[in-house]
Structure formats: C-alpha cells, structure tokens
Amino acid sequence: MRRVLTIAAIAIIVLLNSLASAQIASTQQLPQDQTLEVVTWNLEWFGSTSYGPADENLQLQNVVKVLDSLKADIYALQEVSDQQSVDQIVSHLSLPSYHGFVADYITYNQKMAFIYNTETVDSLTSGAITESMNDYYWASRLPFQFTFKVHINGETANIMAVDIHAKANTGDQSLSYRRRIEAAESIYQYFQNNRPDTRIIMLGDYNDDMDVSIFNDQPTPYQLFLDDTQHYKVVTKALTDDGKSSNVYYDNMIDHITISNELFNRYIDGSEAVFMADDWIASYSSTTSDHRPVWTRFDFSSATPIHTDENELPRQTILKPNYPNPFNPSTSLTFELAEPKQVSLQIINIQGTTVSSPLYHQHMPAGVHHIRFNAIDLPSGIYFYRLTTRQGESFTRKMLLLK
C-alpha cells in the first residue's frame, strides 16, 4: 500500500533535518563547498541479521538520514557486513554522486568501509596495510587504506585515509589493552618508515580514549602519536578534553581522528565534533548504532597554499601567522627553526600580562613546529604571541579571540 505523508509528518522530517544541520553549522566558518569534510562512524553490525539492531530496514533508514544530513566528502565506516550493505546505503542517499567499497579481505562481518563523494574525490588505491602488521593485534581487522585525490575550490591534493578498528575492551581486558598498544605502535612505525611524506588521516574506532586508557586508567595506547607533535596531531583529543563521548553507553571518546603534519596547515581547528544523532533519532542506540559519528573539516579555500614542503629545513627562525585567526577557542601557532634551539612561546594580553606559556625554555629540533593553543579559559580580545630564543631572538604577532 502506498503511504501518503501527512503535513505533520513532513513537518517532523523538516525539523529533524534542521536540527542535524544546526549541529553541523556550529562547527562551520567556511562554506562546505570550500572544505573537505571527513567522518568516522561505527555502524554496529550493519547488514548482519544475527547481531546489532533487530530492524535492518529501520537501521538503513536512520543511517541514510544521518549521512544525508552530514553531506561529508569521506565516510570511514566500521562494522559493515559486506559490499551489498555498502551498496544499499549508497543507493538510498539523496545525492547520486556517492560510491563506496568494503574491506573484503576481512573474513567476517565486521568490516571497514569507505563511502565518498565522486564530485570532490577521485579514488586512486585501496586495500589492507600489511607491512609490519600482526593480524592478531588488530583482531583480524588489518587497517584499511584509501588513497584519493581531492578536488575542492580549485585545489587538488593526494591524501591517504586509514580506517582502523582496534581490539575492543572485551574478554581478558589486560590482554585486549596490550593488543591495542601493539597495534598502535605498528601503525605508527609503518607511517614513519613507509609514508614519511604522505598526507595521512587515520580515523576509526580506536576502542580507547586519549587522556588515559579505558582499561584501569592506564596510559593511552596511542601515546606515541600524542607525544610526536612534530609529525602527528590527534585532533579529536580536544573532544576528550571537553568531556565529549562518541559512545552512547559510556562517557569516553573511543572514535578518533589523527592527522599527519602534512595536513596541519589545512585542518580547521575546532571543527572536530561529535554528531549527536541520538538527539533526533528515536531509540537511537537500539535502532541505529551504539556509536555516534565524529566529524572534522579541512580548509580548501584560497587563503592557505597547499603546496608546502616541511621536510626542507628552514633557513632562519620565523614566527608565522596563527591559523585560524580570529579563532575560538583554539588556534595553531607555527614557527620555524633553522637549527636546534631553546625557545619559549608566550601568550600576552593587551595589558602586557603573560597569560599562558605553551613552551618555556624548551629545546626544539630544527624544522617546522605547530603548537596548538586553547584559549577556552580566556575572554575575547586581542592577544599577542611571542617567540624568544636563548640566542636573544624575539618575534611577536597579534591574534584575535572571538567567543
């Protein structure tokens, strides 16, 4: 029987889409057609008739509602059963320009998958990352790489997205924790040894948090990435610090996104967000997923050039303009050193008082350095950031905090 939507039903649908759009808009300072939007989402056994939400058709409808609301360029998905499940999603999306594929090398129905918008993304290569990887540590879900060329706002760039699904904190939790550590160390070494100059976005279900581990508050398995601030930034750690949660049952961020330094100047600080789909989808945890989508954006406006080579050593000490500016509440402070130096980086208010010291007499190697500054506890206004070296050099720039 054909169903006719009532005016009330149409109004509800419009309201739901408006709520979804408002959540996205809260992280936007640039139009979406000038940015690359990247999302990770665990779909909880999508396509499986034995596990996950019981109503498969309703789960499909809700997943499509969320993706249609986000309209991202790249979706990295976890817990997808097969290619048919990906095809189902793509065929129901409102835009016909999306394609998708599954990690078919995984032998059971918890596979990773990518869905991407062909209007902005050209597929280059995809497949399992096997070099130096141990299938056991990865719970038989080796990382899934998707290398693509993005075309946005007249800019092009090759990017490698790596979809991961780490070992869950089940069974022997001490052993599961150790497996996550080993897996994280292996993918870190792979990037360092095999992809030193590649623009990398590693995203997925990390099954652990970034301040401390969900296992007995032990150190996070991803400490290597957090410590190596010259090469990596876990952009979603800000969500952890803000007390956000990507799982509907726990107060932890276990779905994360990490980028390599080749994308530092493209990432929109503060764009990281948990998409609260459970605020507008009824019985979300039982009908859709136990995870929430996590969203980030990259700037492809003409304001920042993409063709930079940070592997070439600078010729002098330089303090660069912060980005973004104005900012709220965080910004990236960048400086270059031609040789190793002891440096201090201070934040000074309009009265001349030092309000923060991100670096204090710290020895830094030669190269390009990106220091994230979070002004969440400071009022709006003009601030100065000053770089000084032990050799007596001093550089000062101005920035504007708008809340």
Fold and architecture overview:
The protein has two domains: 7-299, Endonuclease/exonuclease/phosphatase (Deoxyribonuclease I, Chain A), CATH 3.60.10.10; 318-401, Immunoglobulin-like, CATH 2.60.40. Helix content is 20%, strand content 34%. The protein has helices at 7-25, 56-70, 83-92, 173-194, 223-227, 237-241, 284-287, and strands at 35-46, 74-80, 98-102, 111-117, 121-128, 144-152, 155-165, 200-205, 232-234, 255-260, 273-274, 294-299, 318-319, 330-337, 341-349, 354-364, 367-374, 381-389, 394-401. The chain has a six-stranded mixed β-sheet with strand order 3-4-2-1-12-11, with helices on one face. A six-stranded mixed β-sheet has the order 5-6-7-8-10-9. Strand 3 and strand 4 (111-117) form a beta hairpin. The longest helix is centred in the middle third of the chain and has 22 residues, at 173-194. It starts with 6 loop residues before the first helix and ends with a strand. The model is unreliable at 1-14 and 302-310 (pLDDT under 50).
Q: Kindly report the CATH topology of the largest domain.
A: Deoxyribonuclease I, Chain A
The number of domains:
2
**Integer average pLDDT:** 89
Helix/strand-derived category reads alpha+beta
CATH architecture of the largest domain: 4-Layer Sandwich
Main beta-sheet strand count, sense and barrel state = 6 strands, mixed
